[in-house]
Amino acid sequence: MQNLVEKAEVLVEALPYMRRFLGKTIVIKYGGHAMTDDSVRASFAVDIVLLKHIGLRPVVVHGGGPQIGATLKRLGKESTFVEGLRVTDDETMDVVEMVLGGKVNREIVESIQRAGGRSVGLTGSDGALLRVRKKTVNGQDIGRVGEVTDVDPSVITSVSESGFIPVVAPIGVDGSGTTYNVNADEAAGELAAALDSEKLMLLTDVQGVLDSNGQLLSQLTVEETLKHITEGTITEGMIPKVGCCMNALKGGVSSAHIVDGRVLHAVLLEIFTDDAGVGTVFVP
Ligand SMILES: Nc1ncnc2c1ncn2[C@@H]1O[C@H](COP(=O)(O)OP(=O)(O)OP(=O)(O)O)[C@@H](O)[C@H]1O
Ligand SMILES: [Mg+2]
């Protein structure tokens, strides 16, 4: 009996959050590194379906770094990274498009449908969703890596309003139709701002942002974040991640979180419980 009462209490704790987020858009970036475990993948899909059923509007953006890396390796190609961004030549871009749009995207759509939801997979070229220009890092050419210049979220809005859960692969297109590899965190942040979303959640393979002693930083301001980057505590793939959280806040998103995607039901825990300290939250 006690057990049943506890179950009811969990639902009661969720009630104010359900009310607050009803009809709101939540952009969730699902990192390639957090996708490797089958049970975690299934729990992620269930979480997303539950959000949709209770009237929130989840939008999934995915990465696929490890999956792209594995395919490139099989082809005998090795990538180099500049500030967490993959240097992308034409051959690498073919692999990026095949793996992200063709494989990872389909797998997520399928897992959501197995969990009882209806889902539509898209890339940033569908409906001119993500317009980009070629990006350089400190003047360095890193190939077909795109920087988002415009977002037309209407395709997401229509898909979402029709009852489907949109799943977006981070591939952008420039004015002449050339496709570019976009960092999935950046794509998620830009989408979150363009959709006026309530929340941006980046799921990754660490607890959140860690300090130089490996301790979780549960809250960060913009100044603190910049300090950690200059001091070298925040490096590699965490750089675009914190950058996009700060941009999303600037773009009007109410809250941005970096959450441990290896934890079962990480999404539900973050949205529907009172517990602070699930990952890192960025505050204005
Ligand atoms: N201060 C920090 N705290 C936590 N992780 C950090 C920090 N600095 C660098 N990192 C690295 O950032 C990584 C997360 O970014 P990464 O790009 O590898 O994964 P992802 O974005 O979740 O996946 P994908 O790029 O495939 O979408 C961590 O695994 C860690 O190695
Ligand atoms: Mg990354």
Describe this structure in words.
By secondary structure, this protein is α/β, with parallel strands linked by helices. The protein has a single domain, classed as Acetylglutamate kinase-like (Carbamate kinase, 3-Layer(aba) Sandwich). It contains nine helices and 14 strands. It has helices at residues 2-21, 38-53, 65-74, 90-114, 154-161, 184-194, 222-230, 238-250, 266-272, and strands spanning 25-30, 57-62, 81-82, 85-86, 119-123, 130-137, 140-151, 165-169, 171-173, 179-181, 199-204, 219-220, 255-260, 280-282. The site of magnesium ion has 5 residues, from loops.
Which architecture name does CATH use? 3-Layer(aba) Sandwich
How many structural domains? 1
Instruction: Provide the CATH superfamily.
Output: Acetylglutamate kinase-like
CATH topology: Carbamate kinase
Number of strands: 14
Shape designation: globular
Reconstruct the topology from this structure.
Blueprint: H1 2-21, E1 25-30, H2 38-53, E2 57-62, H3 65-74, E3 81-82, E4 85-86, H4 90-114, E5 119-123, E6 130-137, E7 140-151, H5 154-161, E8 165-169, E9 171-173, E10 179-181, H6 184-194, E11 199-204, E12 219-220, H7 222-230, H8 238-250, E13 255-260, H9 266-272, E14 280-282
Parallel strand pairs: 1-2, 1-11, 2-8, 5-8, 11-13, 12-14
Antiparallel strand pairs: 3-4, 6-7, 9-10, 13-14
Helix pairs in contact: 2-4, 3-4, 6-8
The structure holds adenosine-5'-triphosphate and magnesium ion.
Residues 31, 63, 65, 185, 237 line the site of magnesium ion.
